[in-house]
Write a structure and sequence with these properties.
The protein has 277 residues and is of the alpha/beta class. It has one domain: 3-Layer(aba) Sandwich (Rossmann fold). It is 52% helix and 13% strand.
Length: 277
């Protein structure tokens, strides 16, 4: 029986690479994106990997309940199952809390958190009925450690962490595995887009701190590793019988998490402050 993977946010970055990786592993990949006109890069990459026949592109917006229902219904009518869901769609919104509007906060949470919840709820009855399935939520090291200037992004990813922990308890009796992948900085468009959409003003009282955050982010992005590491990890999780809950990866990600876990908070706070000087 053909294994089916449903992935959100596949026009670029982790989503694109994960779609190619799962197709290469033999999955029928339903690669979703908000604008199907952006599918060129994905199909080119799948073609180079010899996996293009296994990739189907469908339009889906994780903030639109109707498109979620339509895509899941179509997948079920064609293939009768969903074996893997990768919740990858998201974006990074930057700025200091005082300078962000409530609309900014709602938009960030609507995509990065409520989109994950909506997609997950759509496939849970399917996987529960199959008594099998894997849901991979693409989180972030920012879901474990909050950094200045990215509070909305951190809040959305912290929410995904708590949601995933609770859901793992709920679904384990039904053979459904819930997994968090927590990348650090990687060479993907999310940070370029996030840096381009920083919310601030010319007379901001946070100007110097914001510039320090931007410089740090730019340095991290320039030295970031190949995002294919993340796609390869998702592929290994998909075929694993008993994946663990969390997988942190990327330059400095594990060290940061260990630092937060082991150091007194004042010391850890000082390390972050020093990094931003």
């Amino acid at each position: 029986m053909e294994r089916v993977a449903l992935i959100t946010g596949t026009s670029s970055g982790f989503g694109l690479l994960t779609a190619v990786e799962l197709a290469r592993l033999g999955y029928r990949v339903i690669a979703t994106m908000r604008h199907t006109g952006d599918q060129g890069a994905l199909l080119d990459a799948a073609g180079r990997a010899g996996a293009a026949p296994l990739v189907e592109v469908m339009r889906l917006d994780v903030t639109d309940a109707e498109t979620i229902e339509r895509v899941v219904s179509e997948v079920m009518s064609r293939y009768g199952r969903v074996d893997v869901l990768v919740n990858n769609a998201g974006f990074a919104l930057g700025g200091f809390v005082e300078e962000l509007t409530m609309e900014d906060w709602r938009l960030q949470m609507e995509t990065n958190f409520f989109g994950v919840v909506a997609m997950t709820r759509a496939v849970l009855p399917i996987m529960r009925g199959q008594r099998s399935g894997t849901i991979v939520n693409i989180g972030s090291v920012s879901g474990r450690v909050g950094f200045p200037g990215y509070a909305p992004y951190a809040a959305s990813k912290f929410a995904v962490e708590g949601f995933s922990e609770s859901l793992r308890h709920e679904m384990s009796p039904f053979g459904v595995r819930i997994v968090l992948v927590e990348p650090g900085a990687y060479k993907t468009p999310i940070w370029n887009k996030g840096l381009a959409n920083i919310r601030t003003s010319p007379d901001s009282p946070y100007g110097r701190k914001l510039q320090a955050v931007l410089k740090y982010s730019e340095r991290a992005a320039a030295a970031a590793p190949d995002p294919r590491q993340v796609a390869g990890l998702v592929g290994r999780i998909a075929v694993s019988r008993s994946p663990r809950l969390r997988y942190a990866l990327g330059k400095g990600a594990r060290l940061t998490l260990w630092g937060k876990a082991l150091l007194p908070w004042k010391w850890f706070e000082g390390v972050i402050r020093q990094a931003l000087r």
